[in-house]
């Protein structure tokens, strides 16, 4: 199990975590900042210059998950993780990766009001230095911007007027009660190439329906991995019913087949998109999301979809719309029509 202590930089997460170790039997400290420090030593200056923070490195996010799994194989846990995580897509990627490895995560937010936080950061400047003080103060707006999703996702402990020990005691109470436990879908990580089927559903303005998964970053189309022995079109119908509560009355027509090449650590495979047709207003009102898997949905035009989807998914959408307009399916490789 992971006890993830989130909060603003300088909120006292590490100090509270040390105190928490005394109150949670068998617990151990796991600081992902050490993973970032290791990457800074091993990666080239050119690669590091391309990111503003080591959290922006996909390798850091993967290693955070892999290291947690390795540590839990050596000790019973739980692991107490004091780490600021302000980007929701990074939370999705890391917590989803943990869930895929059957590792439960309890998300606790250590909140300190800004007035107290600035005072604490100022006092620490004598030890940490002026550069660290300026860096922490500069990230306060990012924390404020993240608070809406943080307070919804995590259990909040207001530590503004608490000592580190008092904070740890409240955290220990939260751990024992199980609040903040992430109810997230446990999708096993693929071990080989996969076949996945997605469905494009449209509104009366020809905008496409996109969903926001809780267990991985970014928006995508309703759909999922085709199970062994399952016809792909039938899998697409099943996924729409499971994810949106909508039951398609017919198997949808194929729009594109896209071969996604393997790019370690991803195995790639075939990605199919089907035409689910237009949803009337009364059917749109029937959409019901499974909270453990999807946090939201929306209709988006092509331009808006480009800002929400990964480049690979958007390339599939663009060609699927072309196929829909021409009335014939297209065969793609890595998002490009074969023979183009």
Explain the overall architecture:
- The protein has 340 residues and is of the alpha/beta class.
- Helices cover 43% and strands 21% of the residues.
- The protein is built from 13 helices and 13 strands.
- It has helices at 13-21, 33-42, 45-48, 58-74, 88-100, 114-128, 130-138, 140-153, 164-177, 232-244, 281-284, 302-308, 311-326; strands at residues 2-6, 28-29, 79-82, 105-111, 155-158, 194-202, 208-213, 223-225, 253-260, 269-278, 294-300, 330-333, 336-337.
- The strands form 3 sheets. The protein has a 6-stranded mixed beta sheet with strand order 8-6-10-9-12-13, sandwiched between helices. A 5-stranded parallel beta sheet has the order 2-3-1-4-5, sandwiched between helices.
- Strand 12 and strand 13 (336-337) form a beta hairpin.
- Helix 1 (13-21) packs across helix 9 (164-177), helix 4 runs parallel beside helix 5 and helix 6 (114-128) runs antiparallel to helix 7.
- It is elongated.
- The mean pLDDT is 92.
Please give a handful of descriptors for the protein shown.
43% helix; 340 residues; 13 helices; five-stranded parallel sheet; 13 strands; alpha/beta; Nucleoside Triphosphate Pyrophosphohydrolase; elongated; six-stranded mixed sheet; 2 domains; Rossmann fold
């Amino acid at each position: 199990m992971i006890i993830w202590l989130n909060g603003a930089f300088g909120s006292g997460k590490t100090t509270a975590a040390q105190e928490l170790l005394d109150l949670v039997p068998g617990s151990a400290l796991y600081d992902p900042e050490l993973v970032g420090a290791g990457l800074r030593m091993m990666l080239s200056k050119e690669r590091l210059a391309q990111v503003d923070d080591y959290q922006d490195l996909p390798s850091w996010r993967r290693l955070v998950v892999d290291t947690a799994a390795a540590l839990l194989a050596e000790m019973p846990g739980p692991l107490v993780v004091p780490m600021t995580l302000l980007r929701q897509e990074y939370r999705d990627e890391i917590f989803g990766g943990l869930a895929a490895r059957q590792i439960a995560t309890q998300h606790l937010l250590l909140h300190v009001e800004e007035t107290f936080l600035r005072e604490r950061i100022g006092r620490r400047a004598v030890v940490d230095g002026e550069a660290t003080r300026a860096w922490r103060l500069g990230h306060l707006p990012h924390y404020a911007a993240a608070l809406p999703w943080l307070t919804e996702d995590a259990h909040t402990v207001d530590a503004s007027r608490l000592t580190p020990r008092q904070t740890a005691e409240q955290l220990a109470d939260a751990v024992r009660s199980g609040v903040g436990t992430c109810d997230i879908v446990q999708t096993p990580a693929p071990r080989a190439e996969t076949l996945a089927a997605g469905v494009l559903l449209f509104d009366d303005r020809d905008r496409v329906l996109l969903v926001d998964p809780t267990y991985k970053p970014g928006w995508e189309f309703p759909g999922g991995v085709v199970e062994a022995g399952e016809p792909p079109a039938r899998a697409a119908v099943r996924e729409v019913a499971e994810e949106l509560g909508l039951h398609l009355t017919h198997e949808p027509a194929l729009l594109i087949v896209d071969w996604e090449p393997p790019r370690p650590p991803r195995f790639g495979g075939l990605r199919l998109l089907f035409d689910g047709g237009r949803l009337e207003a009364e059917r749109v009102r029937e959409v019901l999301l499974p909270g453990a898997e999807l946090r939201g949905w929306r209709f988006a035009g092509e331009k808006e979809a480009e800002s929400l989807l990964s480049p690979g998914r958007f390339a599939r959408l663009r060609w699927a719309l072309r196929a829909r307009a021409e009335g014939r399916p297209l065969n793609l490789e890595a998002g490009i029509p074969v023979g183009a």
